[in-house]
Task: structure prediction
Amino acid sequence: MKTVWRVWGAMLALAIVAALAWLLAAHLWGPFDQWPVVQIDDESVTIGGLHAIHGALAITGVLVALLVVITVVPLVVALSLAIAACGIAVGIAAAVFGVLIPLSPFLLIGWLIWRATRNRGAPTTPATPTTPTTPTRDANTAPAATIAQ
Result:
């Protein structure tokens, strides 16, 4: 979770830096000669009539909205896939138990027959420790010095 907050914080800091860069550029270059006009329901707003801070705030708002989308959408997709996987697992478990319940008498009888007919064998006893013996030296195992004598 710490990584998510670090990444989100870094992206937010980058968005703020981008908005400040836009504000600085708008302040340095000043107004343009022809600004576009936005008309909504018989009201016109000239983009050039806005102050630089309005543009910076608008860009910051859009960038923050994009950050939220970038972080929320993957989480929602991962959560929905996890819930779907749990639903599939429950469905498979229900199908397996649906088959095993009618077969349970046969499985019980088979297990009892196996228990009755298996080879139990003699009980194993622990091995007795042996004492090491000294090897005897014959002509094949004697060192080369003794063979030469």
Observations:
- The mean pLDDT is 78.
- The radius of gyration is 41 Å.
